[in-house]
Amino acid sequence: MVQIYTGNGKGKTTAAVGLAVRAVGAGMGVYMAQFVKGADSAEAAPLRAAGVGVEQFGQGMIIGRSPDDTDRAAAMRGIDAARTRLIEGSSGLVIMDEITVAIALGLVNLDLVLELVELCPAEQELVLTGRNAPAPLVNRAHLVTEMREIKHYFSAGTAARLGVEY
Predict the structure, then answer these.
(1) Is 139 helix (H, G, I), strand (E, B) or coil?
(2) Given Cys at both, which of 15, 116, 146, 166 links 7, Cβ 3.0 to 4.6 Å?
(3) Could you give the C-alpha distances from 68 to 58, 59, 65, in angstroms and in order?
(4) How far is CA 159 from each of CA 22, 55, 155, rounded to the nearest angstrom?
(5) Across 62-166, where does the E strand assignment appear?
């Protein structure tokens, strides 16, 4: 099955991490490719300790600058890593965290991600996260959950907090 966690609300990566924990608990192999992110966030160490393969394929958040060739090359390494995991079948759950953001920023082409969706074997679960999931991905997915922001403390000026947002 292909799952998408999207929307402007908080909790997309958190939902994918929760699913990863559940899958590991059930004895599944799990792999998470994090796009755009260039430094470990707080979930990476405990996931690795639980046996989840976690890799970042970004040069850090792209805020206030245009993506460059280094950003695109990092994202393509993530696409290749996810493809490898889908083909070899060692991971019952493959998570492509922030992949829709990578698409929106022009780091990867939507068609490449759709190819991976088509490549996903029936016995594997593929999870895609990020804001603004493109309609072709939404149409192809088996489950789409939209996190909708009703109220967020960022609006009041609260900064991202370790262990909560990263």
Answers:
(1) helix
(2) 146
(3) 11, 10, 9
(4) 30, 25, 10
(5) 93-97, 125-129, 143-146
Mention every residue, 6+ apart, whose C-beta is less than 8 A from residue 18: none
Report yes or no: 23 and 50 within 8 Å, Cβ to Cβ.
Answer: no
For residue 93, give the DSSP letter: E
Which domains are present in the chain? 2-156 (3.40.50.300)
Which amino acid is located at 54 in the chain?
V
Please, are residues 128 and 122 in contact by the beta-carbon 8 Å criterion?
no
- Cα separation, 35 vs 105, whole angstroms: 11
Q: Pull the structure tokens for residue 165.
A: 């947002």
Rounded to whole angstroms, the Cα distance separating 13 from 96 reads 10
Q: Are 117 and 137 in contact (CB under 8 A)?
A: yes
At 92-134, the pLDDT tens digits run 999 999 999 999 999 999 999 999 999 998 899 999 999 999 9
Q: How many helices (H) and strands (E) does the chain have?
A: 6, 6
> CB of 104 within 8 A of CB of 131?
yes
